[in-house]
Amino acid sequence: MLICEQMPGCSTTRRARPILPTTHWQTNQMNTSRPLLACCSLSAILIGGGAPAALAQSLPGGCYAGPFPHSNAAAIHCIQASGISVAGDIANEATGAVTPGSPLGVGILVRNAAVSGSVANAGVIAAPTGVSLVNARVAGSLSSSGTISGGVGLRLAGATVDGGVVSSGTVNATSAGILIDAGSAIRTDQPGVLVSGPTLLGGISNAGTISARQWGVVAAYASTFSGGVKNSGAITATMDTVNGYPAVGVAAFNSGAVSGGLSNAKTGVIAVTAAVTASGISVWNVSSFSGGMSNAGVISVTEINAGGRIAGAAGLDVGSYNTGSGALGGSLFTGGIANSGWIDVVVFNSGVITGGAAGGLSLHGVSTFTGGVVNSRDGVVIVDFTNDVGGTSVGAAGLGVRGTRATALSTNTARFEGGVLNAGTIGVNVVNRGTVAFGLAGVAVKNFVSSSGGVSNEAGGRIAVEVANTGAGGNIYGVGVGGPVTGSSAISIETYAGGVSNAGVIAVTASNAGTVNNVAGVSVSNVSRFDGGLTNSGGISVAVSGPGAYSGDVAGLRLAGVANWSGAVVNSGAISAPVGIDIGANVGFAAGSSIVNTGTIIGSVAAIDASAATSPVTISQAGGLLSGAVKLSAHADTLTVSGGTLAGDIVGQGAADTVNFAPGPGRTFTYGAPYGFSGVNQVNVASGTLTLNGANSATNVTVAPGAKLEVGDAAKASARLTSAGVDVFGVLAGHGAVSGPVKLESGATLAPGGSVGALTVNGDVAFASGATYAIALSPTAASKTQVNGAAILGGATVSVTPGVLLGAHAAQTFTILTATAGLRDTFNPAVSVTQSGLMAAPNLGYDAKNVFLNIPAYIRWLDLAPAAPRNAISAANALNGYFLTGATPPAPIQGLGALSGAALNAAVNQVAGQQQGAAEPLAIKAGDLFLSLMLDPHADGRGAAAGSAMPSAEAPIRDGAAFQSIAPTANSPVFWAGGYGGGASYAGDAASGAARNVGSIYGYAAGADYRVEPNAVVGVAIGGGGTAFGLGQGRGGGSAQMVQAGVYGALHSGPAYVTGGLAFTAFDFATNRSLAGVGTQRGAFKAGMVSNRLEAGYAFPVYAALSVTPYAANQIQGLFLPGFGESFGADAAFSLNYGGRDAYDDRVELGARFDLLQPAFSSGLKIYGRLAWAHNFYNLGLSSVSFASFSAPSFLVCSAAPARDSALVTAGAEYSVGDGWTVSAKFEGEFARTANFYGATGQIRKAW
């Protein structure tokens, strides 16, 4: 035999020396003065390095190395089988003690070996690694019934074990009790890994492959198990016969304290197939459990129960297979249950399933559970459950949370903390041809004394339950809290906190040809106290079909048997079900708890059904849609409608229910046919306007001060309101009928019709002296009340509102009230007239049963609201002047009569067209830009900076060769071409009504200069272009095409210069004027404009090449506008004629120009600018307008105009490129508080 020894001074070179033969046990006689395997690392031993075992019978340090098979009963350092085949077992017997010294660190090492038997420890091993199988194959099992202490208890590294791994003794490991790496495999018809001893510390970690019968990795009958079970490999467990125990992938059961949790990592796969109770990961019958349970990988469970009696199947399970009174009973589970992977549970049952039923994540029979149940955003839980003919099952759930099963919950302390949260996908698919005792649900929480944390289906979460039932289907819920319980207790949860919320999707679909109890998206029942309310901001849908029977409710949200309910039931999402929200018996709402809808509830039977409630229910319809009936109980329910849409009947039950309509001031709620309220004691119209267009009945109706009740609008004269008494403090109006007495209190108003029309009262009408009877007039009719009873007029005041038709109206007499049982008293003789119109005081007449209103001739005119703009006042005065002649305007103008207040002001202001005036400032600006292009003093030859007469400070620069081409000689021509463009904005004015005007201008021109003298230039130019403008507030705009021509001249003497120009512009305008609800009016006209400008300045040298030229200028432009009419458009009634006028702008400028010569460039560069103040004298923006189709007086209209004072800014450059060619560009800006212009000009010149 050879032993490896380190050479002196060398850490890597080895030499072999012979060892004298010894017996197996001559350890003490070996020479230990040399370092044993000093050059052979522990890792080399573990993976096959070091001394060949075939050459030795023992190793230094007391390691047994053969022959094998071998059973050790003594105290040694280690047992090592390396590179051999063992025909039998390798064992450490009960009397054996293995305590290896450093650096080997392994009690029993089987490396690169094949063992036909087992590897077992029944004694004591104290080592960093107790038993290690490295690249080995064991045909039997790896087991320990003794004691192992150290870092790792049992280790598989690239090993295969055919008989499973069993720990029935004690493992005190600081790192891992059982460690299986990714290269290892356990393939056995026994349990894969079984811990059945009293203690295992360090847990179990599997990254390899385990294929086992019934149990993959199991900790059972252990007093203490810590470190948990972690799987990142593949575990397969199968069981095809029934033996009374469940088949599990990973489990801890029948044990004391279990800590460290059970988990399946993202790379982990657990697959269980069985004919018995089955789970992917499970815990049951343990005294306490900590560390939680989680899955981030894949768990697949398939269970086929062919006639047996089993406890169900689950992906992640706690307590479903408990036995005895405690069964996790009396225990504590901490750390919660979490899934972020995939769980698929498939169950086929034709036998009996009790207890756990079928579930993705199942909790059952736990006395105290903390940490909650979470299915995260990436989590998917799918349960496919087939309950065949003859099959009986408790039920099925995606996430099932149930406490200790007991006949009387009040005698135990089952507690659930942390709630249930789903952000992923839960799908439960059920085919039931047998019997389901309790229920089928996406999420179920039940059977606890206390539950906290609530249930939440977050945004993005989806819970789908699909059931095809031909048997007895029990209850079907998307989310179920409480519900039926085993035994005699009717209470499933005594105290529940945290509420239920849904921001995702809950979808329940049931095809029923058998019998089903209740079906609901969310159900809360059999709960003694419920805190936290129920909210839905997502979608809940419940759809049922088939000929089967339902013994309970079919609803989106269902509440029943909740003695103390605290918190609102709020829907801001969408609910669709036969009954949207169902309130059953024995639900007691705490003060402030109510049902609130601002979303959509669609119920084919009822939107909200509280008819079976046994205590008062408060409902608020604050917005959104209620489609379906609202059914109230007989226990003083209150329904308040303040917004949204109600498309269903309100059905009360007698003398206690109250319905409040409160849309709010200025708002109208229409309760339309064919819907109405009935069986209601009190209806209150609290605020705003309520329009009833269907058939309605209530014992008492009250209209509050400031509120209005309209019984039938103009299109619904069939509307009916039946009441024992209508008490009005606000306004009662309408075109329908009121059956019952009507009382008008002081301050109240009866307004039959509301517009011109008739209201019928089948009963007496009584006016208080402070009440008002409001009559609306048209040219041919007046509103009226038909009282089929007596009318007590009480001295109330009659108020008359003239009709909306504008113009003159003849005197008439109308019957405004008829009482079949006669009149009592009279109205106040002084009749009040509202709105506008010249009307002599109307008067009243009477006979025994009728009241007559005598109307003298009157004129109905436009009465603008305060603060109307001047344009609107001007147009209204013109129209009113037309009405005063006794004329009636065209029908389209009559539409103005239906408006009032700010709406009337705005409409009349639109009628007053501003198109002519809005075209003027853009035209003036076009002339300004053309003059600027012709007369720019910075262009060579037009200002003081040119020629030889420059100031002396600048002369040296002018003498440079760079500028020789800039100054042409006398009698030489200069040809040029240029263009300009820009945008202008003129602020509107609220006081006048002028709209904001935003326009654009573009132009191009060409011309020629001729230097008649060295200091004198004359020229001519011609050009063209266009303008466009648009008015704010959608009032249209216009455009123009133009042709321009001009002459100009410049004279300079030394530093002084004078320039002048005269131009003419011909415009071809087109306008469009937009009227809301009418269309567009169009017009066209031609106009001419004359423009002239005179400017003088004097240049001062400042520094080297910089000169400053103060200047003054006067620019006068006259625009000659012809009269024109809008000859075509949407409606001739609104067409306008614009009077011809001469508009002018006289502008004075004072400022300075700046020139900077830069001779460094080869042909010369000049940079120049301008800063100036301008003041405008003008008459722009004022037009004389008249209506084209009728002879109303003309009126003046203001439009946005330029600012009187503004700042002028110019920045430009001129560059001579040689041979007489010059290019230039400049920016032009005009800035003021109410107007701004931005523009640019470019020019190219050639001097000959």
Mean pLDDT: 87
Low-confidence stretches: 1-57, 324-330, 405-412, 945-967
CATH topology of the domain at 908-940 and 980-1234: Lipocalin
Broad CATH class of the domain at 908-940 and 980-1234: Mainly Beta
| CATH homology superfamily of the domain at 908-940 and 980-1234 | Autotransporter beta-domain
Rg, Å, rounded: 50 Å
Helix % is under 10%
Could you give the count of β-strands? 119
Major sheet strand order: 34-38-43-47-51-55-60-56-52-48-44-39
Overall geometry comes to flat
Distance from first to last alpha carbon: 116 Å
Q: What would CATH call the architecture of the domain at 908-940 and 980-1234?
A: Beta Barrel
Derived from helix and strand composition plus strand pairing, the structural class reads mainly beta
**How many helices does DSSP assign?**
6
**Major beta-sheet overview:** 12 strands, parallel, barrel
InterPro entries: Autotransporte_beta, Autotransporte_beta_dom_sf
Protein name: Autotransporter domain-containing protein
Domain Autotransporter: 968-1248
